[in-house]
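Hi! If you just cloned this repository, the fastest way to understand the data is to look at a raw example. We've pasted two of them here, unedited. The first protein comes first, obviously.
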Amino acid sequence: MSTRAGIPWTSPARTASDLLHTATDLTEAVVALDAMLAAGLPVRDLSLTPGRRGARQAREALTLARAGVASTWESRLRMLYVLELGLPMPLVNHPVYDLDGRLLGVPDLLDVEAGLVLEFDGSRWSGSPVAGGHRDRDQHRADNVREELFERAGLTVVRADGRDVGYYRRRLMARVGAARSDGLKRDRSRDRWVVGTSRRLSRFERPNSRDSLLPGRPRLTS
């Protein structure tokens, strides 16, 4: 800790380390680090103290955090998917194109193997130019159009809000589980979408669930 003009302060990396160790649970530790990465703070070189209370949680959070997350609730939805449902880490805010290279949209979360899109409908998100977020009428219309494009291309879409992640959590988990099960059983020859490229594709080319498309994770230093 240092002082400037008599005010104590810590570096972004130290602040992130403290947050990871002292968060109420693993999900909130990931939420904190996601938010710092989204803000562009230099927290990639973190130093964790072995034996410090919360060290295990901090180390686990480092493996789960992702850059590019637009809101804290997206982080919580992602952790519900990974930690509570035990499902693979989805892509975060990664563009999806049709087979002619046209952008269909940028889903909040995407499980490539299941062809499953998860969207969190919040009132605001990072960088949003719309005061009402997803509740704004024009934004809601744009969301509906994007969802139709995703579904027409063969993707399954599940939408959630804060009430779903909180009060209706068990119902949301059941909805997500059922949607993923349906997605895994889909006829993949009918897929008309691909991740992370804008070149024209043949109808026989399909997304590869093993592609490493995730933004870089924070790097731990000893």
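Ok, and the second one:
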Amino acid sequence: MGERVRVWLADGTRKSLRIAAVMTTGTGDNGVYVTARNAPGATVDRVDVALAAGADAHAVAAAPRAAVHSSGGQVLTKDQWVRARHPETNRTTRLGLLLVLGIALLYTGISLANTMVMATSDRVRALAVLRLAGATRWQVLRLVGAEALTVLTVGGVLGLLVAGLNLLGMWGALGLLSAPTTIEIPWTAVGAVLGACAVTAVVWSVIPAALALRRRAVESAAVRE
């Protein structure tokens, strides 16, 4: 504060103004405010009213509502003002985003299934050795499924850590811009994606293992990988 900046007013006049205050919390548009003397002819377009502790919001809003009624003004709560200035994504845009996300998830599922099939197919000899060591067919299949879930769990935890670091970085950057926000994670969607990946990983690990175990263990153990 106290420094001077050069600005051009709306009528083209060049002035040097002194910074008198810096707002701790931004107003959403990072605007610059000047005194009425430096903005001749400007009209009031918004008035912010803060309620004192214990004040009745309806009673306080009655006077401003009566004052702006003749000019067509509106009295809005904070949430109403945010919805009016920053409307939510429309239905078409949301459907487009869901379509792109769906295609990405589909290809991710195909890649995951292909990886699990290839990994299991390369372990035919190892699975046969387990059978020769005395493990039953169902024990081997349960082992394959448990290994797939372990790999998926590690990948899921690492993915959440990376996403968390990105979110913390954006949260910190917004805080520096005087626009603090809260981090909201859609746990339902995250859980659904992880569940779908778990089912895909287990199914496409167990199926090739089951097909490989249909051969005699001795024959499979003799196969070079």
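That's it. A detail worth noticing about the second one: The radius of gyration is 32 Å.
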